[in-house]
Amino acid sequence: xxxAAGISAAILILAPIGQRxxxxxxxxxxxxxxxxxxxxxxQPTPVTTTAPPATVPPIEALIPLTADGVANRVSPSVxxxxxxxxxxxxxxxxxxxxxxxxxxxxxDRTVSLVFLNGATAQARVLAMDxxxxxxxxxxxxxxxxxxxxxxxxxxxxxxxxxxxxxxxPLPTEFTPDPSIDAGEILGFTDWEFSxxxxxxxxxxxxxxxxxxxxxxxxxxLVGISTFGSVSSLTSIGIDDVVGRVDQLLANRNVRxxxxxxxxxxxxxxxxxxxxxxxxxxxxxxxxLPARPEVTVAALGSGxxxxxxxxxxxxxxxxxxxVQFRPGLVFPVILAVDAEQSTETAIEASLPFISMPDPDHxxxxxxxxxxxxxxxxxxxxxxxxxxxxxxxxAEVRVESAARTHLWVYGPDGSLVxxxxxxxxxxxxxxxxxxxxxxxxxxxxxxxxxxxxxxGYTVVTR
Length: 460
Known about the structure:
Radius of gyration: 22 Å
Number of helices: 3
Strand content: 35-45%
Number of domains: 3
Distance between the termini: 16 Å
Largest sheet: 8 strands, antiparallel
Helix content: under 10%
Number of strands: 31
């Protein structure tokens, strides 16, 4: 991974509506009320993804914009995005499409949009890509929708150039005014496994700004605000945004990963539990009312349970039994694990739905790259890796999320572990070790990010 200008970036934590956002290294840049997981819905009629070339005059005909010019020309096409989980920003990139970050809309299938011209509507989420934290929203049915921003290119900008950032940080009402901030480009980052280019600006990123517009001095869109810290904001380059949107709408299966959605049907009060060992974790989703106390009990021994909001915040912990009151947050995630392989069942006073995880129990190649997705906050996945005694191995996890990485030997003993403390554009979790046994090793990883996030496990 090439890092320009030696920048160490972070992701902004979601902050409650009506409260100030809290900036925390390794968290996403939205404003949220609770937690936020994957949204992908049925695709409507085909839509275009690019603005007509005639809307982008040649650079010699352009006049640099002042802050007032940005407010007049850019702000109308930047939407305030409101979900059940919180708020963020979005940008109109074509007559029928708006783009934002995946962590802004996650896990909703529809979002509320508010534009400066007073247009408000519920809009459908078409697709999302956790690897680059990008989501696509259909705005074709919104009356009085604003025009798309003219599309620029990262080829026309360089380190030291000035840019404008437009979004909705720290909203205190449902029809706020967007903020307009200026900054200079610090550098570019090409993250190998995301297959996109990122640009970083020396402007502070604030919760709620996620999914907003980064434009050049002529008002052309060159990036979508994504990650940030108190000192810098990192955005997806617009060339890759347009390319990825086209892929998502055409295939809906970028990088070979099926869409991930929270299950809604088939809830039961008695659920089977099958755990492979201490690295395994089974998840259940509860779409629970905000009133009665809920009790979940294991019908066997040796099972630990944790109730979390969807962003990974712990609500309750228990050994073989847990009690909690759902409150206003939904859905609720029930995580079940054990110190050893276990076949049992749990019984709940209100119904839960089993949440399958395609990333559990896949085999890693001895040398290669394997993609996966953290489906909820604090999700834990595990893979199998065959090694022979004396073989030297390296395992690295590339992700926007900070990752806790473990390797266990065939006998279940801990071989090595590492915790990535920096996340995106930082030191990824990496383990280099020598196998002291023949057989199947377990590679387990857990994210500390509060939203869905893609990752790549690199073995060599």
